[in-house]
Amino acid sequence: MNHNIQFHDKNLWSKYDKNNFIAQKTEFLKKVIPPDVKSVIDIGCGNGLITRELKNIFPVVVGCDISAEALSFIEGETICSSCDSIPVSDQSFDLVFSSEMIEHLDDTVLKGAISEMSRISRKYILITVPNSEVMAGAEVKCNICGCVFHQSGHLQRFTEKRLNALFSNDFSILMSQPFGAHVSRRFGSLIKLRQRLFGQYDAAGEFSVCPSCGNRNFKWPVSNIGSKVINFINTYFTGRKNYWYLLLLERKRN
Question: Which domain holds residue 62?
Answer without folding.
Answer: 5-251
